[in-house]
Amino acid sequence: MSEDFLQQDVRYVKGVGEKRADVWAEQHGVRTVHDLLRFYPRRYLDRTTVTPVRQLQEGPDSVTVVGTVRSVNVVPGNNQKRLEIILEGEQGGRMKGTWFQGVWWVRKAFDEGDRVAFHGTVEKYGRWHSMTHPDFDRLNDEGPLLDTGRIVPLYPGGEAMSNVGLTSRTVRRVLYDLFKEHGLKLTETMPDWIMDGYDLMEGRVALRAIHFPKTQQELSRARRRLKFEELFFIQLLLAQMHEQQEEVAGPAFDDPGAYTREFVREVLPFELTGAQTRALREIIGDVQTGTQMNRLLQGDVGSGKTVVAVAAMMHAYDSGYQSAFMAPTEILAEQHHANLQDYLQPLGLEPRLLIGSQTKAEREAALQAVRSGASPVAVGTHALIQDEVAFDRLGLAVVDEQHRFGVAQRAEMFEKGERPHMLLMTATPIPRSLALTLYGDLDVSKIDEMPPGRKPVETRLRAEKRRGEVYAFLNDRLEQGEQAFVVYPLVEESEKMDLKDAESGAQELQEKFPDYTVGLVHGQLSADDKDATMRRFKEGDIDLLVATTVIEVGVDVPNATVMLVEHAERFGLSQLHQLRGRVGRSDQQSYCVLMASYKRSQEAKQRLEAMARTNDGFEISETDLQIRGAGDFFGTRQSGMPDLKIADLTEDDEILEVAREAAFALIEKDPHLRADEHERLRRRYQEDYAEHGLGFARVG
Ligand SMILES: Nc1ncnc2c1ncn2[C@@H]1O[C@H](COP(=O)(O)OP(=O)(O)OP(=O)(O)O)[C@@H](O)[C@H]1O
C-alpha cells in the first residue's frame, strides 16, 4: 500500500492552507504529513469525567461540566464590566461562568440555548458555584467530541500559532480529519521480530492514540512505542556508522617501541594505574589492526587521560607517524602544549603549537616542522585538521573535550584524505543515556580509577559573612607551602551587578597576604603573558593564582590544594566540577571552597548542594541532567544532540537501552537492510531520517 501521502505538503491537508502551513513550518518544523502526525501533544487534560452541576464543590482541581446556556449578561461592575453566563446542568442545577477579560469576544461565542462544556476550578460566591475564565467548548458543533468527555491533548502553541488560528482545538480537528482519511493506510515499519521481541504497540495505533487516547493505559503504550521508534532510528544510524568504521582502513602501527617505553618508564615519575594500562592496551590493540580506530577515552577530571593519550602519541611516533592533538579553544590548546612540552622534551622531542593568535613567523616555523615530519605532535584547535595543516604522515588524532563536537561533525571530519586513528577524550562524565546517543558509534575505554593516594577533595559552601574565616584557612595552607586558585566568573567589573572582578580581587588578596605572591590570569591577556603566569604558578613562583575560568580545563599543578570559587552560584554544575578537579591532583588533602549567595535561586542551591554532597563525576552529571534537562545539558547549540520530539533522555534510559539493542541486532543481521522483512523500515529510514541527518544538530 502506498504511503506517498506522508511526504505531502501540509498546506494541502484539510483545514490547514497556505498561511497556517507557513507558520507551522517556521515555528515547529512541520512541513509534511509525516511531520504533522508527529506533532506530539505537549500535555493532556483529563476530561473523561463530567461532573453533574448539582454536585459541584469548591476545590483546587479542575473539573468539567456540561449544560445548556440559560442567560448571557454583561454586568456593569464598580470599575470593570464582566460577563456572566448561567449554565443549567443536564440533570438540573445551575452555575455561573464569569469573564473579566475578553468580555465582548466571549459574549459573541454564546447564545441562549447552546449546549456547552466548561472546564475550570470551582469557587463559591454566595449561593453560586462559579468558574472564572473557564475553558469552554461548544457542543452543538457537528462531528465527534474532541474537546470534552475524553483525554484531551494540548499542543505546542505560541503567539504566531494562535494568530493564524492554530489553537489546540484546531489542531485536534485537523488531525482527526487526517486520521479519518489516511489512518488506515499507515503501514507498520518495524519487522515482526522487533514488534514481538519488544512488545510494541502497532505504529498506526500508537499515532492515533498519542493524539486521541482512549485511556491512560493506551496513552502510555503509545508513548512507549513512539519513543522506542525515535530512539531506534538514532541508534540505527550509530549502528551503521559503527559498522562502516570497522571497514575503514587506517594506518597499521608496529608494536610499541623505544619512545613509548621510555615515556612510560622513564619520563613518568609514577606507574600507570590499572585502568590507564587497560585503556592503553585497548588503544594499542586497535591501532595495529589496519582499520581505523574510533575510541572514546572517558574518565573523570584528574584520572590521567592525558598521560594515556601521550603514550598513544609516542606509539604513533615509534611507528613513524605524527599525531594531532586538538582542544576546543586556543587557551586550552596552549595549556596542553605546555603540558606536552614537559612530557616530550626529556625525550628530545618538540611538540608544535598551531593557533590563530600566533605571529606569522611563529606559525610558519611550526607549519614547517609539522610538514617536514620533524615534529611528532601538532597541538591546536579543530582548525588543525579543517584548515589543511599539512602533516608529513598523520597517524593519530587526539580530540580533547569531545562533547563539543556533534555526531555529524565527527562523520564529516575525515571525509577527505587520510584517515588517522581517532582518540576522543572527554573529561565531562556523561550520563549513560547521553553517552549512548552522542557517542553510540564509538568504542569506549573508561578510566574508572584515580591515581593512588588521592584523597577526596573536601568541599565547603561559605557565605560572604564568613570570608574572614576562609582567608584564615587560606593562610594556613599557604604557610604549609601549598598553593591556591581563586576563580572569578567575570573579567571586568560589571557596573550593574556590583561584583568584585578578578583584578580587584587580586589586589585585595595581595594586600591581605603580603608575604605571598599573587598572580592574575584572564582571557584578555596576551597568549604569552598567560603562558608566563601559568608557568610561574606551576613552578611555584606564584602562590595564589587569581583567574577567570581560563583555568577550567587542562591546568595541572599538583601542589595546588585550595580551589576558592567566588560567586559560585553563577557557575554551572559541570563547570564547578571541572574547577574542583584542578585540585586534589596529588596525595595532599585538598579543599574546594564555594563562596556563594543563592537565596534567590533554588536551582543554584541544588547545584551547590550537589557539589558539597559528592565528588563523583557521574553522580554530578546525573544531577546536572536532572536539573537542566537534556537539551540544556551541554548548551543546546553546542551539543550536537539530536532534536528529540518525544523521548526524553533524562527519563527514558530503559527504552533507550532496548532500542539500541534492537538497532545493533538489526545491523548485525542485515547490515544494508536488504531483507524483504526490512524493506519498509529501510524506506522509512531513508526518507524520513537518514536524509535529514536524523536531526542531529550541527555544531559550530
Ligand atoms: N598513574 C598515575 N599515578 C600518579 N599520578 C598520575 C598518574 N596518572 C596521572 N597522574 C597525574 O595526575 C594528574 C592528572 O593527570 P592527567 O592530566 O593525565 O589527567 P586528565 O584526566 O587528563 O585530567 P583533566 O581531565 O583533569 O585535565 C597529573 O598531575 C598527572 O601527572
Strand content: 15-25%
Query: What is the number of E strands?
Result: 21
- Spell out the CATH superfamily of the largest domain: P-loop containing nucleotide triphosphate hydrolases
Number of structural domains: 4
* Shape descriptor: globular
If classified by CATH, what would the architecture of the largest domain be? Answer: 3-Layer(aba) Sandwich
- Molecules bound to protein: adenosine-5'-triphosphate
Main-sheet strand order equals 11-12-10-13-14-9-15
Derived structural class: alpha/beta
Number of helices: 26
- Segments where pLDDT lies below 50 for 5+ residues? 491-499, 634-639, 692-700
CATH fold field value of the largest domain: Rossmann fold
CATH class of the largest domain: Alpha Beta
Proportion in helices: 25-40%
